[in-house]
Write a structure and sequence with these properties.
single chain, 686 residues, mainly beta, Methylamine Dehydrogenase, Chain H, five-stranded mixed sheet
Length: 686
Amino acid sequence: MVAALALMLIGSTPQPLYGAWKSGLIGGGGYIQVVAISPAKPTVAYAWVDVGGFYRSDNGGKSWRMLHGSTPHSAAMQGVRSISVHPANPNEIVIAAGDHWSPASGGLFRSTDGGKTVRKVTSTVFGANADHRWTGLALARANRNPSVMLAATLGDGVFRSADGGKSWKKALDSDACFTDVRFSPVNDQLAWASAQPYDNWLGEKRAKLPGGFFRSKDGGETWAKLAETGPSEIVVESPRRLVGIFEGGHEIRQSRDNGETWTSLTDGLRLDAKDNSFTSDSVYQSLAVTPSHVLTASSRGTFYRLPKGGQKWQKLPEPKLKENYVAQPWHARWEGTGWRHFGSALASITVDPSNPRRWFFTDWYAIYRSEDAGVSWNLSMDYVESTVIHCIVPGGGNMVHLGMADNGYFRSLDGGVRYANAKVNSNMKCIAVDPSNRRRLFAVGDPGNGSWFANTLYASEDAGGTWTRPAAKGLPDMSKLRANTLAIDPVRPNTLRLGVSGKISEGGGVYESTDGGANFRAVNDGLPPDLAPFRSDIWGVGRELAVLDLNGKTVWLLASHDTWQVYLATDGTWKELKGASGKPNDVISHKGKFWLATGGGLDSFDPANEAWAKAFAKPAYRLAAARKRIAVGHDDGVLLSTDDGRTWEELGQNLPNRVRPIPAIIEHRLVVGTGGSGVFWRDIPR
């Protein structure tokens, strides 16, 4: 019976283990970029994510396991721009990884054991989460001599390797934003590199990078610019025709002279130049080639095929869909109404080189697989988890409350093994459980329109099964301000406080409700008028308010992430506290003390005698505590203490995407959320 239940939970494919960690089953996708199939062994495939590392499948793409538990812990390594698989060895891969927020840590990596271990071979810049990340490939191999490789970067030119990626040299010195690089499949001497204009952050500065279209006639050793503007992505249909995407996906063109000139190739496609949305039936972001056709698809999942040598695209009929995730219906499945996730912002199309009827595509949410050339599609992402977690909160017993980016609120009833979506909003930033009634929850998040900010109060009286929006009268104009943190009074029923961004004099500060969120009033006595204590940005900050019961008296702590100041309120008036060891990143209460995760370490403050103590000096970012156990997320994993902070054990080994994880303690289980790979759990001593 137990074995049957386990099989029902995880399906017919064993769930991957990451050391002692298992992935919580959400079925949550971030922007999955591409599926790359091994030509030598088609049952082996790799896939990669803009902020969630990279994966391998050994059963033809039906299920996957994360590989980035073995990679360096740098945040940049969690974003992958491309993977190239050696055509004769499915375990030899080259990885282009890096993020435009931390360009110095990106580069080219190589593995000879299928991603179990990786080694950095060259430092350069890739934008796995930057503009145009859905476009093209950053790595290419010569067809007849696969030891010759090209790597196209974000503003750092094109690199060339002659030894299968072991060493690299810059072949094209250019500050263009490269989006695609290709070899001719019939002539190793002929290669192309595409670039698009870029105007976004690159490290700590905004950068404006040019586009362009380049060609090499000597295997990538030297390059000539063919045009200042060109395609974002190309495929080589035949030695006589290139097909490329132009004008931000609004046009497809062909070239019969190796890219020197282009003519329109849009007959049969739906076109609307005014529709610039990410999910549009008039925007095309992907191309692929079969032995008989060129394929494209709109960013709403409508597929077209073009016969080899043909001039008119043929629209494929509406497909049949089967959307199960690990043996159960997917939470985002299409049910005939509402938003259809299938094909949204479709990023890539891959054709299996050993079977031209087996196709994959990737999009904002998922991987899909077709075995019949697009007639029907199956969700094909078992154990792919690429969500960004905002918060994890114990709900009592085996209940776990989860807030995440893009998918909103989820909960688990089995200790974090599997989660269900309540479909409340898109970003649930902070959740608080009423200690006097664990079925009552309050939360802050976006208003349900997909915005990446939190300004709306939510309440649940049935442990997250359903949610309402309290009136929240008395708050300032929240269309301009933000609320990323809240806490519930453990002494006074229906009383909670909300942290609002902005200066005190301009409506920001602490607001209190004594009637369950119906009405609020400012409680800022003692706070300077020009102080803006609360973060407005939804990213990278934990809780900034905490509360505890001190002998029947409510005591509040405000720990500002932005100003680094800490304030205490014991009698209704705030007073500043000195003594925290660095910038506060998260604050909780536990056993009559406040605990602060700061850039200088883990601090505790005892309000009974107003005394600070330090648990350790290593930078700390997120916190959880229960009984004698305290868990701390740090730069490279998670520390656990089972004796109230006196001694610590590192539990982050093999944890994928282990940069500053968010911990929660659920009975005898440690659950952690990541910045792009969902949640993980492992059992710990009671």
